[in-house]
Specification:
The protein is of the alpha/beta class. The strands form 4 sheets. Strands 4-10-9-8-7-5-6 form a 7-stranded mixed β-sheet, sandwiched between helices. Strands 11-12-15-14 form a 4-stranded antiparallel β-sheet, with helices on one face. A two-stranded parallel ribbon has the order 1-13. Helix 3 packs antiparallel against helix 11, helix 4 packs parallel to helix 11 and helix 13 packs across helix 15. The longest helix is centred in the last third of the chain and has 22 residues. The chain is globular. The structure holds pyridoxal-5'-phosphate. This is Serine hydroxymethyltransferase. Its cofactor is pyridoxal 5'-phosphate. It catalyses: (6R)-5,10-methylene-5,6,7,8-tetrahydrofolate + glycine + H2O = (6S)-5,6,7,8-tetrahydrofolate + L-serine. Its EC number is 2.1.2.1.
Length: 415
């Protein structure tokens, strides 16, 4: 750090002020976490310098003996962690891992069946603004109006009608467990590939807190930086029969040189995930998410589906008469970072939205428990229903002071 500070005080200042931002507020973005100093050390290493196109033992560059060791460790640890036939740890991100699935199994114009973005899916699941919706014919299912959980009848109907080549389960705002067996049987019935995008919940699977999609799916893609708590990146695991196809789709079809520093950091993270401490952590993440959802519910900020089985909950703000956008801005002014989110059948535009999404990976990493979740729910409710987007507003100031007091007891990256 000293060398950086001497040469580039501007960027050194950003690094420090970001750390202060993390320490000074409540981080409730469901897709974020705080990776360990061990992971960050591997990320900031000389492995970043190395070109290593290809795979271990089959590189297009010399000098790969050391990075081969890192990638082999990452692959073996990933396979062990998820009990998978094959792992590819090179995708640069969740979106890159998803591209590889399209590359391996689909040609432009082919049909895919996935969850609609406004119902909880992801951009890369066939939305019009993404390559996936521009180049492929995406058919989308949603959630049931009453249960607000995946509408399995609709999934089956659409699959039988459209005969997609690939059926996709997973998304960014699904609070409940997914019935993988249902999807597997349906894919078998119509002769489709079954793909799970487990970006959000793979960490819970790694800690054995929820059922794994790996025995059911042909391929499982994921990010490594959400509950999993690794570096910002992606990976995939698959059945042996698809290994060669998916490897070729990652490189050379979709990517160039792998980021060897990030792959080393993924290896560190997979080792962390195999520990009893990590298993305890993910169980605490879920208990906290349930406590936070119940706490908000008590203030009339209703969790969709009635609660959560995972690390996140989605809340409907219509009963308290606040938009998602206003809630996000008011919480932010009070030192609480969360995001506005469309709720199922949302009457509002996506950039306004009627809901918020909250998640507990970061606050659980900081050591907070259900008691703190109740306090956080109270603080969110006050900020959202009585506060203002102006940080100088009296309510913003008062809530922010309480947030500071709370995070002071559970510091992020303790000194
Ligand atoms: N898939 C899902 C379900 C996600 O939630 C996300 C990101 O939030 C992605 C894919 C994309 O991951 P990345 O941002 O690493 O490209």
């Amino acid at each position: 750090y000293d060398e950086l500070a001497a040469f580039d005080p501007d960027i050194a200042g950003v690094l420090l002020s970001e750390l202060e931002r993390l320490r000074g507020g409540l981080q409730l973005i469901a897709s974020e976490n705080m990776s360990s100093p061990a992971v960050l050390t591997a990320l900031g290493s000389t492995l970043s310098n190395k070109y290593a196109e290809g795979y271990p033992g089959r590189r297009y560059y010399g000098g790969c003996s050391e990075v081969d060791k890192a990638e082999n460790l990452a692959i073996e640890r990933c396979k062990d962690l998820f009990d998978a036939d094959h792992a590819n740890v090179q995708p640069h991100s969740g979106a890159s891992a998803n591209q590889a699935v399209y590359g391996a199994f689909l040609s432009p114009g082919d049909t895919i069946l996935g969850m609609a973005l406004p119902m909880g899916g992801h951009l890369t699941h066939g939305t019009k603004v993404s390559f996936s919706g521009k180049w492929f014919n995406a058919v989308h299912y949603g959630v049931d109006k009453r249960s607000e959980d995946i509408d399995y009848d609709q999934v089956a109907e659409l699959a039988r009608e459209h005969k997609p080549k690939v059926i996709l389960a997973g998304g960014s705002a699904i609070p409940r467990l997914i019935d993988f067996e249902f999807f597997r049987n349906l894919a078998d019935e119509i002769g489709a590939i079954f793909w799970v995008d487990a970006a959000h919940f793979i960490g819970l699977v790694a800690g054995k807190a929820i059922p794994s999609p790996v025995p059911y799916a042909d391929v499982v893609t994921f990010t490594t930086h959400k509950v999993l708590r690794g570096p910002r990146s992606g990976a995939l695991v698959c059945k042996a029969e698809h290994a060669a196809k998916l490897d070729k789709a990652v490189f050379p079809m979709m990517q160039g040189g792998p980021q060897m520093h990030t792959i080393a950091a993924k290896a560190v993270n997979f080792k962390e995930c195999a520990t009893p401490e990590y298993a305890a952590y993910v169980n605490a993440v879920i208990a906290n998410a349930q406590a936070l959802a119940a706490g908000l519910d008590a203030h009339g900020i209703r969790p969709t589906t009635g609660g959560t089985d995972t690390h996140l909950s989605l809340h409907d703000l219509q009963a308290v008469g606040v938009t998602g956008a206003d809630a996000e801005a008011r919480a932010d002014a009070a030192g609480i970072v969360l995001n506005k989110n469309a709720i199922p059948f949302d009457p509002a535009k996506p950039n306004v939205a009627s809901g918020i999404r909250v998640g507990t990976p970061s606050v659980t990493t900081q050591g907070m428990g259900p008691e703190q979740m109740k306090t956080i729910a109270d603080l969110i409710a006050t900020a959202v229903t009585k506060g203002d987007a102006d940080p100088d507003n009296a309510v913003s100031k008062e809530v922010r002071a309480q947030v500071h007091e709370l995070v002071g007891q559970f510091p992020a990256y303790p000194r």
